[in-house]
Design a protein that fits this description.
The chain is α/β, with parallel strands linked by helices. The chain has 2 domains: 86 residues, Nucleotidyltransferase, domain 5; 147 residues, Nucleotidyltransferase, domain 5 (2-Layer Sandwich). 38% of the residues lie in helices and 25% in strands. It has 7 helices and 11 strands. It has a 6-stranded mixed sheet with strand order 6-9-8-7-10-11, sandwiched between helices. Strands 3-2-1-4-5 form a 5-stranded mixed sheet, sandwiched between helices. A hairpin with a 2-residue loop joins β2 and β3. α1 crosses α2 and α3 crosses α7. It is globular, with a radius of gyration of 19 Å.
């Protein structure tokens, strides 16, 4: 079995695979103050809960957009699982063509999502991967290459900013109200966040398709709020919440022999 870890700004996502079979997955809050021992003991507890022994984990890989946690997580895996994990970055083969101005600026999570999208959905037609994470990112893939994209504010971060920047607005659940013409403060805020971001997604996808000069494009949504947003727009074709973790599994298999 291998462990795949996606270190994000808000959450750290874990998945354990036995070959192509997902054994279990879970997520924890990203905490810069936690030590390797805290992350390691937390991981061991989750493995035990799932009935997986630490000796069953024979390898691992992680991607990270939080450099200050790279050593922490890597050391935890070494100490508690006895493995030396791969990290997505220089030296790891991806098979992905990069047409960005500076490929080094592209986040590891976006690279992994692109690899997973090509592997799972093919390259016969363009693909847009929309990741609803701490930021809302749009990756555009054409002819098997990452040709660019968009980075927009994240849903939760936008809500946090709204609440912290005002004196009387409360924190609300991110869910769609029954009507866009809302009748109280809570539903007013929910309408603005959910329907507002749905409009952002629809407009950007429309603009991307116009620049690609085709409507024959597959739009894949992933990330924590992907299901919520997919219910509010017709431009999302597929919701794939395991896209990043499956992409990490693909990359591990691609690089396993060189890593030994």
């Amino acid at each position: 079995m291998i462990i795949c870890i996606d270190i994000g700004n808000t959450n750290i996502k874990y998945a354990v695979f036995d070959g192509e079979e997902l054994k279990f997955s879970f997520r924890v809050a990203t905490d810069l103050k936690k030590t390797s021992d805290e992350y390691g003991s937390q991981l061991i507890g989750m493995l035990a809960f799932a009935g997986v022994g630490r000796e069953q984990i024979t390898g691992g890989i992680f991607s990270s957009v939080v450099p200050s946690l790279d050593y922490t997580i890597g050391h935890a895996l070494g100490m508690y699982l006895g493995i030396h994990p791969m990290q997505v970055g220089p030296g790891v083969r991806t098979g992905l063509q990069m047409r960005a101005d500076n490929a080094k600026e592209v986040g590891a999570d976006r690279v992994v999502n692109n690899v997973a999208a090509i592997r799972k959905y093919g390259s016969e037609r363009p693909v847009i991967v929309v990741d609803f994470g701490t930021a809302t990112t749009f990756n555009v893939i054409k002819d098997g290459a990452f040709i660019g994209g968009v980075i927009a504010p994240g849903i939760k971060g936008s809500l946090d900013s709204l609440v912290s920047g005002t004196a009387k607005l409360p924190r609300v659940e991110i869910e769609a109200p029954k009507s866009v013409i809302a009748t109280n403060t809570v539903t007013n805020m929910q309408a603005g966040i959910v329907f507002g971001f749905a409009g952002l997604v629809e407009y950007l996808v429309k603009k991307i398709k116009k620049e690609l000069k085709t409507n024959d494009v597959l739009t894949v949504a992933t990330g924590g709020f992907s299901e919520t947003m997919a219910r509010e727009t017709d431009c999302i074709d597929v919701v794939d919440k395991m896209l990043t973790l499956n992409g990490l599994r693909y990359l591990y298999e691609l690089n396993r022999e060189e890593w030994k």
